[in-house]
Amino acid sequence: MHHILQPSDAIFILGSEDLRVADRAAELYHQEYAPYVICSGLGGVATVFDDPEAVAFGRRVKELGVPEDRIILEPKATNTGENVRFVKELVQELSLNLESFILVQKPYMERRSYATFRKQWPEARCLVTSPKQTYEEFMGNDETFKTRHIQSMVGDLQRIKMYPQKGFQIEQEIPVDVWKAGEVLIKLGYTKGVSM
User: Fold this and answer.
1) What is the domain partition of the chain in residue ranges?
2) How high does pLDDT run on average in the chain?
3) Does the pTM exceed 0.85?
4) 8 Å CB contact between 37 and 66
């Protein structure tokens, strides 16, 4: 989404299977964008960790020099909406006065993370970012990895269109050419995770 980041109350990692998201969060912490790193997630359909995603991400940011007392774990969320709702509840339980967040997620999840946060926690402010990589750097050379993530992208595109009607996230404009590209990918067989 190309947000220009500003100092915030916390860096909020939404669960995924990609530790590069945690690397980006640690980088932002060391650049003093926020005093806390919140890691959320039990695991979704593509989890690759033995521990909850929050625990794996928390371990990673600690390895990268984020102090343990600056890391907050929410290890129960299984989807983006739960990431936001459960962290909101946890922040309230801990009596933390956190009102602004930098959301960190995979590049193709930025828009849906933002839209979900704005719907689920409208009184808080958020910006969104992801690991700074080109498409080629993110995808690498592993064809199985590429296929899985292209399928996820197509599924996320559908969710951006459908989820506002379900009350899960705010409306987001989808350019016509982007929607047509998604339809082409479905025709090419990238249908796992897609509502047909």
Assistant:
1) 10-187
2) 92
3) yes
4) yes
Sign of dihedral through CA atoms 10, 89, 23, 161?
A: negative
The identity of residue 47, as a single letter, is T
CATH architecture for the domain at 10-187: 3-Layer(aba) Sandwich (3.40)
Asked if residue 61 lies in contact with residue 29, where contact means CB atoms within 8 angstroms, the answer is yes
Sequence-distant (6+) residues with CB within 8 A of 46 are 16, 17, 148, 152
Environment class of 96 (CB within 10 Å of its CB; exposed 0-12, middle 13-18, buried 19+): middle
The tens digit of pLDDT for each residue in 124-178 reads 999 999 999 888 888 888 888 888 889 888 988 988 998 989 889 999 999 999 9
The amino acid at 18: D
CA distance 22 to 30: 12
